[in-house]
Specification:
Its cofactor is Mn(2+). The chain is an alpha+beta fold. The protein contains 15 helices and 12 strands. A hairpin with a 5-residue loop joins strand 2 and strand 3. The longest helix is centred in the C-terminal third of the chain and has 25 residues. The protein is globular.
Length: about 400
Amino acid sequence: RRHKLYREELNLTSPAAPVPLRPEASWLQFHLGISRDGLYPRSSPIVNRLLRDMQEFPTISADYSQDEKALLGACDCSQIVKPSGVHLKLVLRFQDFGKAMFKPMRQKREEETPEDFFYFVDFQRHNAEIAAFHLDRILDFRRVPPTVGRWINVTREILEVTKNEVLQSVFFVSPASNVCFFAKCPYMCKTEYAVCGNPHLLEGSLSAFLPSLNLAPRLSIPNPWIRSYSFDGKEEWEVNPLYCNTVREIYPYSNGNRLLNIVDMAIFDFLTGNMDRHHYEMFTKFGDDGFLLHLDNARGFGRHSHDETSILAPLSQCCIIKRTTLLRLQLLAEPEYRLSDVMRESLLQDPLAPVLTEPHLLALDRRLQLILEAVRKCIDTYGEATVVANDTTQTQAPPSDRAKLDT
């Protein structure tokens, strides 16, 4: 009823004519730019245009994400995500068939994750998603989808445009007269865990959707260094320092770039402090040597005062790293290109700046030194020729390897 009244108010009672897809749409251009080397070219102007569109375009619909629908039995999403439902996120749609994942603010920037929290019950932070995109781009990985911060009017841009009656039913007005809503799932999904506007405006992150699985299929693969998601018990890598020898005997980690890409991912997660990398995804089109997608980074940047060195286990146990990654890390350790300074300048471009507090920025420099120290120990033990893999002479991928999407 609310949706019908809203459409009548805007004179939208007549069926809308089919909307053509504009070839110059930023979402389409982003998808067409995906290649074997990354989600977007190094100097892509499309990324900045896509960030601006996600920030400025009005929403035309809102809905639960696929994993929350799986929890409600509304779809079979087993090939897309592993449902959890603890944290609220919504899919917002825009013109030109644009689609982004919205994660609302759950924790203030100056708050640290409590020491007694297990990593698998930690908050998901919208600013961590934003910061992870900028860090990924600075490291030249280009494996995190473009992400931007935005103030959302939860009444006008979610409640009044959603057709999902379940989502409509979880909106309420708090005693402070703020509009709030919460997730609909089996646990931790009630008014005590709601997010609220002030009274309508709520800040959050918007991450651009990747191409449909029908157009660009992806594989979800367990991380060999997955953690134990229980209160006790250890995985083999946590008790066996020679665990990497076992991994090296298993295809596809026995040859190619897969193990090197796992080390890249571990370095990225260590810098952000993300311990929740239980799976990784890859585009099937690019084969076994394709890049790993660095998705779901909201559990990063929780504790600036603690460096979780166990995240670096793939590097410290395998003692291997790409030359290009090492060169970039060494550059970002130089005073004139200090990682914290580059991140600070990059994050100033986001509408929600400051995205990270100063202690989190300074923690990046400290953790970078720990990574370089781990590499030095490996080189002292095994020699540079064994530890540093030369990937600087790779030939450019042929045009046929670029992601082709049928519009």
